[in-house]
Specification:
- The mean pLDDT is about 95.
- Helix 4 crosses helix 6 (about 135-150), helix 6 (about 135-150) runs antiparallel to helix 7 and helix 6 (about 135-150) packs parallel to helix 11 (about 230-235).
- Strands 4-3-6-5 form a four-stranded mixed β-sheet. Strands 1-2 form a two-stranded parallel sheet.
- The protein has helices at about 20-40, 45-55, 65-75, 90-95, 120-130, 135-150, 150-165, 180-185, 190-195, 205-210, 230-235, 240-250, and strands at about 80, 100-105, 170-175, 175-180, 200-205, 220-225.
- By secondary structure, the chain is an alpha/beta fold.
- The longest helix has 17 residues, at about 20-40.
- It has twelve helices and six strands.
- It holds the Pfam family Biopterin_H.
- Belongs to the biopterin-dependent aromatic amino acid hydroxylase family.
- It catalyses: (6R)-L-erythro-5,6,7,8-tetrahydrobiopterin + L-phenylalanine + O2 = (4aS,6R)-4a-hydroxy-L-erythro-5,6,7,8-tetrahydrobiopterin + L-tyrosine.
Length: about 260
């Protein structure tokens, strides 16, 4: 990725531990407390079960080996420490090897409510609990394998599938709309916004998702829902690259958002 980050990931010490400051642990604690309150009655059951399985600490940032023990036990996954930003090649390579990239820095208090690059709170609170679920884990693994083998122009299409599932996925359940996407689960604003009348919410069809443009710096005008987490497993068994080829032939849908101001970028 061409963008740079003002954050620098922390390196583990000789014991393999990351030395977090008291202030960093405090920021984690406040973020977790706020978001746990925010997602009550909104997060899917699989996510809440996953939080228990990874035994997420509330008072400090977890060490990666703690997460690895839980993920290895449940689905054979691991987390891998990475710099603040990594390129697509490395991102797909890690996922293809059942390693979920975790940038080992936490946001500053000045960016407490929102930062554009994914920090350790987003990666762990947003994503790691879902990786204890076999269907979600298999979908993410298959996605990594496809992406790692894909050409650059096809990766752009695949990125949309990840965006509207792993990051911003919703599920229609017997209890109503529930969240499984980490980009929503780790964001108080987006969590509330999903339940307002503003966004459009449609059933997930892979071909539609591959043709849907998105922007990372705004609230999503459109979300896609699955009916159960096992739907992701079913998608992982499809010929996704055939769908990508079809999406390229058909072209993209008209964006549901204004174009980014070129001068501001």
């Amino acid at each position: 990725m061409a963008k740079s980050s003002k954050y620098t990931s922390k390196q583990p010490n000789e014991q393999g531990l990351i030395e977090w400051t008291e202030e960093e642990n405090q920021i984690w604690s406040e973020l977790v407390a706020r978001q746990l309150e925010c997602i009550k009655g909104k997060a899917c059951d699989e996510y809440l079960e996953g939080l228990q399985k990874i035994n997420l600490p509330h008072d400090r940032i977890p060490q990666l080996h703690e997460l690895n023990e839980a993920l290895e036990r449940e689905t054979g996954w691991q987390v891998a420490p990475v710099p603040a930003l990594i390129d697509f090649d490395e991102f797909f390579r890690l996922l293809a090897n059942k390693q979920f990239p975790v940038a080992t820095f936490i946001r500053s208090r000045e960016e407490f409510d929102y930062l554009q690059e994914p920090d350790i709170f987003h990666e762990i609170f947003g994503h790691c609990a879902m990786l204890t679920n076999p269907a979600f884990a298999e979908f993410t693994h298959k996605y990594g394998q496809l992406g790692y083998a894909a050409e650059k122009k096809d990766r752009v299409y695949l990125a949309r599938l990840y965006w509207f599932t792993v990051e911003f996925g919703l599920m229609q359940t017997k209890d109503g709309l529930r969240i499984y996407g980490g980009g929503i689960l780790s964001s108080p604003g987006e969590t509330q916004y999903v339940y307002s009348n503003e966004p459009e919410i449609n059933p997930l069809e892979v071909l539609d998702v591959l043709r849907t443009p998105y922007r990372i710096d705004i609230m999503q005008p459109l979300y896609y829902t699955i009916n159960a987490i096992d739907d992701l497993f079913d998608i992982s068994q499809m010929d996704i690259m055939a769908q990508v080829r079809k999406a390229k032939e058909l072209g993209l849908f008209e964006p549901k958002f204004p174009p980014k101001n070129k001068l501001a970028s």
